[in-house]
Each structure stands twice: as C-alpha cells, then as structure tokens.
Amino acid sequence: MKSHLLLTLFVIGLTSCTACLAEETNFCQLSSQKELTSCRTGTQSTLQLALAQCDNVPDPPGRVACKQQAFASKKDVLSLCDGQFSQRQRICQKLGPAPYGPVIDPANFVTVIDNLYFPLTPGTTLIYETHTPDGFEHHEFTVTRNTATILGVTCVEIHNPVTLNGQLTGDTLDYFAQDKAGNVWFFKDDSDDVSGGRVVKVDGWTAGVNGASPGIQAEAHPAIGDFYRQDFLLGTAEEVAQVLNLDTTVTVPAGTFQHCVKIEERTGLEPDALEHKFYCPGVGLALRVDLVTGNRLPLVEIKTE
C-alpha cells in the first residue's frame, strides 16, 4: 500500500514537473540557441576542409597565405553566427516564447486579394527604379494570372524580375493569399540569382515543406507597434515586420500618396540589415528605404492591362 502511494505521488509530481517545464520553455530562444550551435559547428567543418585544400598548395608561402585566409574567413563567419543569434534573441523578445506554427485552414481564405495596403489585381505591374553604386537598377512587380495551391490554399503568383544596367540579376516568383479577415499571407518564395545570363544561385522556401511556415505580408487592420513574422524557415527565411506609423505621406515619381503605413523590416539572417517600407492605400508598396546604405527604391510607374 505504501509503495503504491509513493508511486502515485511520483507520477503526479513528474506530470506536474513536465507541465511546469513546458510552461517555462522559451521555444523561440531555444531554436535560436541550437541554430547558433549549428552555425558554429558548420564553421569548424568548413575550416578543416579549407585547411586540407591549403595543404595541397605546392608553394610554401602560398600555403601559409591560404591558411591565414582560412582562419580569417572562419573568424568572419563566427562573427556572423553571433550576430544572427543576437538578432534572433531580440526578435524572440518581441514575439514571445511560443513555437511559430500558424494553423492554416483553406476554408478561411478567399480567392481575391483586395487588402487596402497590398492589393494584388491580376494584370497590374508596379515598376521601381533607383541608381546604385553599381549602376541603374530596375524592378518589376507583376501580378500574374497564375495561381498555385499551397497547404490547400489558392495563392496568387507574383513575378519580380530585377535588372542592373539592363542585365537580369534576379528573377523571383512569390505566392500570396488573403484570409477572410483581410490579412495577406506570404506562402512561397522562389528566387534565382542571375549573372551573365546564367542562374548562379537558387533560393526559396514553400510553406509546409521542410518546416517552413507562411507569415503575414500585410495586415488588414495594422496598429502601431504590431510585430509579426512575414515568413519562417530557420536559416532561410526569417523576416519580421513592425508597424511604425499609420498616416505617412509619400512622394515618389509615380505620385503623392497619403495615409500610408510605415513598416520596419529586419531579418534574423542579416544582423545589420534594416529597411523601412511604405504601403499606401489602393497602391501597395510605394517606397523602400535601406537604412544601412541609404538607398531608396521608389515606385515610378503603375501599369495595368
């Protein structure tokens, strides 16, 4: 009888302790810590491979220089690992401890995207242009008539090619859908980096694949201070946004727009990156400002079929 009582008390205590730990676990910071460990481990592995390659350099001075460069590269990457971790921790402080995994119910989505600040009407093209230290940059944001079904939700396809001095440097397909409340969700990013007419790098993610989750691209009713994920796949897509202002006037070559929402965007992948974006009623993105470089990417023209 006594042993049965002790076993019962142990089970009750264990259950209580497990529940307590679940309540106290900060899953956001826990994943950030494990990503830091992964980053540091990968850096060490990359260093060993680089040193092995250096051992095959016939010229002794060249071999020494090769190893010095390998250690310098390791230092830079470790610094990036630490910077990413610090950025993720700051993001976690705003988002809270819960794991990120929005529940997507296809029945909660509509087929038309008419969000006031991010309307996506098929046949519409927004054109952005800017001068950079590397030359003249041209962006096109075209709402195609193509769709894709992701997690059971019908998403609208956006084609976004980028050219530099007339040469294609990037080609992206993005997919969005709007829920019944009017929020626009980002479901997929398929990006190609292009150089010399050839694809040199392929990036992207798809909600529901390899742990990727969709995020909010545009709220139906933004409020100052709102902070949310725009996408999420640890190590690949970690953009977050915060609403700074609801009544900004923006003047760009395409016109003057009032009552625009000012959004601050950052990412856990690039600790120093910081942008302000201005979304205007009935238009969408009117201006993007890189706060690090000072570069501005304004809307210059709106085309409709």
Description:
The chain has 305 residues and is α+β, with helices and mostly antiparallel strands. The protein folds into two domains: 2-95, no CATH class; 109-304, Beta Barrel (YmcC-like fold), CATH 2.40.360. The protein has helices at 2-24, 27-54, 60-95; strands at residues 109-110, 124-132, 135-150, 153-164, 167-179, 184-195, 198-206, 213-218, 227-229, 231-232, 239-252, 255-267, 270-280, 284-290, 296-304. It contains three helices and 15 strands. α2 runs antiparallel to α3 (60-95).
Quick description:
The chain is an alpha+beta fold. The chain has helices at residues 2-24, 27-54, 60-95, and strands at 109-110, 124-132, 135-150, 153-164, 167-179, 184-195, 198-206, 213-218, 227-229, 231-232, 239-252, 255-267, 270-280, 284-290, 296-304. It is 29% helix and 45% strand.
Summary keywords:
YmcC-like fold, 2 domains, 15 strands, 305 residues, disordered N terminus, 3 helices, 45% strand, alpha+beta, 15-stranded antiparallel β-sheet
What's the number of helices?
A: 3
**Residue-averaged pLDDT, rounded?**
91
Total strands: 15
Tally of domains = 2
Terminus-to-terminus distance: 82 Å
Instruction: Report the structural category.
Output: alpha+beta
**Unreliable parts:** 1-22
- CATH hierarchy, class of the largest domain: Mainly Beta
